[in-house]
Amino acid sequence: TSTCPNAFICVISNPVNSTVPIVAEVLKAHNAYDPKKVFGVTTLDIVRASTFVSELKKTDAQSTKVTVIGGHSGVTIIPILSATGQSFSQAELDGLTKRIQYGGDEVVQAKSGAGSATLSMAYAGARFANSILEATVLGKTVTECAYVNSDVASADGLEYFSTETEFGKSGIVRIFPIPQLSDYEKKLYAAAVPELKANIEKGVEFVKKSKPAL
């Protein structure tokens, strides 16, 4: 923190729902926390969602945009399929949602337990890092979904949440509110809240029980 106080910190180590609060609490203990510069990288969820939707609907994955909000594991991952401009049957919604939420498990099973997602994770991390560089080096204003400290879901007791986030040279400049949700997505949100809240509390408690050291 004293060496590079203005650094952007991108947390990609799982469980992101808990590791971002851990990073924040450690930085707070050293009076070095800037919530505008700490990001949980959830880009892999976006990449998977865009890929799976494009495969199903026979569209171009690069131009298929799917917003994914919430957290970065299991039921906390909430794909906003209603905003894609595509129509889905209930079976398609259920199948896509489960595959997006548990895509990591699918990879582990495909590798017979010998590993997890590697190439897709590297791609997602590089994509987010490139966006950070566009903001910090080129001075562009960039929008990415990221798991950050925000009040968009504070009414439900959540201090951290992933939504579209706009950032520039000095960090986060705007956090977009939770988008309009379909009835199906409202149920996903309701299921995500208690799990995400528990994950956040677990991270905070972990730091309280340990001695923060950077």
From TrEMBL:
Q: Which reaction does it catalyse?
A: (S)-malate + NAD(+) = oxaloacetate + NADH + H(+)
InterPro entries named in the record: Lactate/malate_DH_C, Lactate_DH/Glyco_Ohase_4_C, Malate_DH_AS, NAD(P)-bd_dom_sf
Q: Name one GO cellular component term.
A: cytoplasm
- Top EC class per UniProt? oxidoreductase
The UniProt GO MF terms for this protein read: L-malate dehydrogenase (NAD+) activity
- Ranges for domain Lactate/malate dehydrogenase C-terminal come to 42-207
- Output the Gene3D superfamilies linked to this UniProt entry: Lactate dehydrogenase/glycoside hydrolase, family 4, C-terminal (3.90.110.10), NAD(P)-binding Rossmann-like Domain (3.40.50.720)
Cross-referenced PROSITE patterns, in alphabetical order?
A: MDH
Arranged from A to Z, the UniProt key words for this protein are: NAD, Oxidoreductase, Tricarboxylic acid cycle
Q: Which domain of life is it from?
A: Eukaryota
GO biological processes:
malate metabolic process; tricarboxylic acid cycle
**EC number(s) recorded for this UniProt protein:** 1.1.1.37
DNA damage found in the keyword field: no
Please provide an example of a Pfam family that matches this protein in its UniProt record. Ldh_1_C
Quaternary structure, from the entry: Homodimer.
* Family, similarity comment: Belongs to the LDH/MDH superfamily. MDH type 1 family.
Task: Please identify the protein, giving its name as recorded.
Answer: malate dehydrogenase
Query: Could you tell me which species this protein originates from?
Result: Synchytrium endobioticum
